[in-house]
Amino acid sequence: MNDNNINNQLVFIENEKVVTDSLMVAEVFGKQHGHVLRDIEGLECSSIFTQSNFGPSEYKDSTGRSLKKYHLTKDGLVFLVMGYRGAKAAEMKERYIEEFNRMEEYIRNGTFSIPSTFHEALRLAADLEQNRTLLQATLTEQAPKVEFHDKVLRSKELLTVTTIAKDFGMSAIEFNRLLHLHGIQYKQGNKWHLYDRYADKGYVDYVTYEQGNTLMRWTQAGRLFLYEFLKEQKILSAC
Q: DSSP assignment, residue 58?
């Protein structure tokens, strides 16, 4: 994993609380997800603490199966990983706590800045998908300044790969091959799917048309992820 991308995905907002999940903990600390589930379920903490800080949930793998995961609050994360040892584990504990604090401060203060670049617009679009209600008052106040980026920031529509490929001056075929080359997606039959490590991040959704065809479409959060991932590979947007 590229450490520069970690903080963009460490925490998110669920039911108005800042949380992470067991899938991300497994990825960050280099553990199998099953082992993280075992560690959580083996914690000797009170039932009240467990209910408040470890929320059972589900995710779908690439085959469509519903599998178990947990949402963790900051306190739950600290309780879980306090036994993880080593210099790398210590570094990631610090990064996690910093990101929880940053997000909580962001929510408390209603921090908001007008994007001046395409990258900033995509970042804010992804944030708004998770935190639209909390930021609505600020958006209204800033409306005259936001007008230029309004379509990007407010859009909830699902995007075709053709649309995103145009950001990079590529055709859909070229872009799909690029994402496959970098281990983001794979082809099954004539359809593309995300690999498991990206499948539960909210980057894509699936649309079924009247003819019965189900196709993968990208969300604004997925568009931002691709922009930042490819930027690390020195592949820059043409915008």
A: E
- pLDDT bucket at 128, cuts 50 / 70 / 90: low
Q: Where are the domains of the chain?
A: 3-109, 118-154, 161-232
Cβ neighbours of residue 46 closer than 8 Å, sequence gap 6 or more: none
Question: DSSP per residue over 134-184, as a string?
Answer: HHHHHHHHTHHHHGGGHHHHH----B-HHHHHHHTT--HHHHHHHHHHTTS
Q: Cα separation of 111 and 94, whole Å?
A: 23
Whether the CA torsion 220, 71, 8, 111 is positive or negative: it is: positive
Threshold 0.90, pTM exceeds? no
Quote the CA–CA distance of 217 and 128 in Å, as a whole number.
19
Distances (CA, A) of 154 to 42, 43, 122, 148, 203: 42, 41, 10, 11, 16
